[in-house]
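Person: Show me a sequence?

Helper:
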Amino acid sequence: MSIPGGAGRPRRPARLTPGMMDVFASESLDPAVIVGVADESAAALVHAGRASDDPDVTRRLVEIVDEIGLSTLAELWAQRPARSLPGLLWRLYVLREWVRRDPAGASADYAEGLRFADVAGVVAGAATPPGPQELRDLADEILRGVFDGDLGVALHRAGAFCRVVAAGRGAREDVAIEEIEADAGDWPPQLRRAAAMLTTAEDLEAGARAWRAGDLV
């Protein structure tokens, strides 16, 4: 399935069909249909949001985890490739959920990282100083951009956010972000978390490029 670039809207917006909603509500998903439903539901979710001018629709899409639970999205999207549309949406919702559940920890990581990744901080766009509420607002704002803005920009901002957080986590171990590697199996937990966040940043930024090229599927 080819997703159009962020500058335009789909000619015939996809809808969340009753069958897709049944899958969202299901307690046990059939592995044989997960791949197709994951791709179709991710595209439908984005298209439904971008085709609507109703802020209440956008709000409900941003807060969908609050309604159906993160575990339901995990069953549906978590196993899809990181740089696919469902894989990227999964990462955006997980980031929002992390900030929502641990705003103090998120803001501490972010504030520390700004000292070493100020350019990424400008791209991410959090208010200054980036306290817990500012981080909650930023997470919601980025996700809203998926549905009422430019998806490429939203992904790029989310990637920049992750780079700042990774830099903050690395700084606590006296490791610069340029020295953080994805293969961090023997590193302390804080550096492993920094490496995971940096990998997420790279996936989100690659997704932004793919969206702009019309290649995000």
About this structure: Residues 18-212 form one domain. Residues 16 and 142 are 22 Å apart (CA to CA). DSSP finds eleven helices and no strands in the chain. The mean pLDDT is 84.
